[in-house]
Amino acid sequence: MMAEGSTGQLVVFTAALAALLVVVAWIDFRRMVIPDPLNLALGAAGLAFVLVVRPAEIGWQVAGSTLVAGSLFAVREAFLRLREMHALGLGDVKFAAAAGLWISPWLLPQFILIASVSALGYVVVASVATGTVRLGQRLPFGPFLALSTFTLFLIETILPHLEA
């Protein structure tokens, strides 16, 4: 889906997205929590982005956002029932819903894949660097969701605009 907004609009939305993602990643990495006001801001900005840049796709974007949040919530609940522990926080689920407004619903499998593989890569590098593997160690997923969101946003929205 090609971006339809003007260059100025895309610059503003890209800067807003980057700023929100950096703050979310920083807080989640340090405190293991994604505050609701940040998820709300990310979602509101994402909704504004869709309404300004891709107004004809609002239904698909909302459906995709709902689908990714529902999928992650189902994973969260299944893991809780099977292992009696939370694999994902509700902040991660809410973040995914908000992020789903920024990227095409057709890219949601890639969204989860990039976040998961980058988190796994982080664990491998950290384990090699420290020489220890700690099973059951908690890991904030927000920074990896943020990385995935921005990567796909750039590929889908900014790169095609640069080529035009």
Give a description of the structure.
The chain has one domain. It is an all-alpha fold and 164 residues long. The protein is globular. Helix 1 runs antiparallel to helix 6. It contains six helices and no strands. The longest helix has 26 residues.
**How large a portion of the residues is in β-strands, by DSSP E?**
under 5%
Instruction: Give a quick account of the main beta sheet: strands, pairing sense, barrel closure.
Output: none
List how many beta strands DSSP finds.
Answer: 0
| Integer tally of domains | 1
What keyword list fits this structure?
164 residues, mainly alpha, 76% helix, 0% strand
Write a brief caption for the model.
The protein has 164 residues and is mainly alpha-helical. Helix content is 76%, strand content 0%.
Record the SSE blueprint.
Layout: H1 7-31, H2 36-53, H3 58-83, H4 90-99, H5 108-130, H6 142-163
Helix pairs in contact: 1-2, 1-6, 2-4, 3-4, 4-6, 5-6
